[in-house]
Amino acid sequence: MNGSLLVDNIGELVTNSPGGGGGPLGIRRDAALLVEDGLVAWVGPARYAPAADRRVDAAGAAVLPGFVDSHAHLVFAGDRAAEFAARMAGEPYTGGGIRTTVGATRAASDDELRATVRRLRAEALRQGTTTIEIKSGYGLTVADEARSLRIAAEFTEDTTFLGAHVVPAEYADRPDDYVGMVCGPMLAAAAPYARWIDVFCERGAFDVDHARAILACGQAVGLGVRVHANQLGPGPGVRLGVELGAASVDHCTHLSDADVEALASTGTDDGGTSTVATLLPGAEFSTRSPYPDARRLLDAGVTVALATDCNPGSSYTSSMPFCIALAVREMRMTPAEAVWAATAGGARALRRDDIGVLRPGARADLVVLDAPSHLHLAYRPGVPLIRRVLHNGVPQ
Ligand SMILES: [Zn+2]
Asked: What top-level branch of life does the organism fall under (predicted)?
């Protein structure tokens, strides 16, 4: 859209651009923000705001960077509401239900899959998510993984090849053959549509040797590494991610001291870590499991991101505000830490510096809250506080 747009009368502007006494969230009071060509062009005190072609009046409310959901599984068919109900009645979560979704996904048409991604993408956007990562992983054949990623790429730049989600039933007694297929023809078909490669490294899914082999194959063709690690129990997934220079290790629910030390050892000059711990509290909520200990990671200097893990089995939420509220209530994060993790933290988990921050040159992705402060996202759980969303500078 042409022309400049001024977001004016901002009571609290979360920039995530520290300095000037605004704390880690880089908070500015009584601020304004100018958008040109889809980018932030200027940030400053409202009284110095430049003229613009159009104006959005924030009416004294809080304005934040749009949420960056760095972990979502949106390409699937069917739902698993009955499995959820059974789990709430006492059955444990094992990850085995993934195969139910695989069957439904293979049977669906391209248009059915595309309609589901479109619906969930729109649902997330209404709740303030302006960037979303989308994984494959419910196809698990060469053709079905490639089409999942082709459809995902219609909706996001951050697509992730997760052919190693589970070993599909037809390979149950020969997992080595499946790993060979993932590294061979499946990767070749998927890579043109993928930015990242991911593996579910967990008991019952892929062991550390298989996970290492698959991730190394992805790296060799230029994909960045992410790992589903240490969700259901302790294991080597987090340390494997660190070993391979992963952008993010995701879940991190069951961590040893060695895991935390390994993550902390990836520290960078800016005070964060190059491998981010992405926490997915929607999964613990929906599987009635103990939450990860965010405080322990933060106190060790590990960069933490929050994401939804949106998927039909273990976390069917697209709501970043819900994850923020859970992180504060259940994971001992402060509201400021949780908001940072859901915006700048997600951007770091995707190795991007153009999102999750509101400074000149960044993408004009932002939300106007129906509240005077970012604190309300955790303070008022379950309340629709996203009043307006700008995506690439365009009001949605
Ligand atoms: Zn996941």
From this structure: Bacteria
Residue 261 Cα to ligand 1 midpoint, Å, equals 23
Sequence ranges of the domains in the chain: 5-66+357-395, 67-350
3-state helix, strand, coil in the chain (%, to 5): 35, 25, 40
* 233, 203 contact by CB (below 8 A): yes
Helices within 308-357 (DSSP H only): 320-330, 335-340, 346-349
DSSP string across 103-122? HHHHHS-HHHHHHHHHHHHH
**How far does residue 281's CA lie from ligand 1's centre (Å)?**
11
* pLDDT given at position 95: 64
Asked whether the predicted pLDDT for residue 20 surpasses 90, the reply is no
Domain 67-350: top CATH class: alpha beta
CA 170 to chain centre: 30
Question: What is the pTM (predicted TM-score) of this model?
Answer: 0.97
Is 251 annotated to bind ligand? no
Q: Which fold has domain 5-66+357-395?
A: Urease, subunit C; domain 1 (2.30.40)
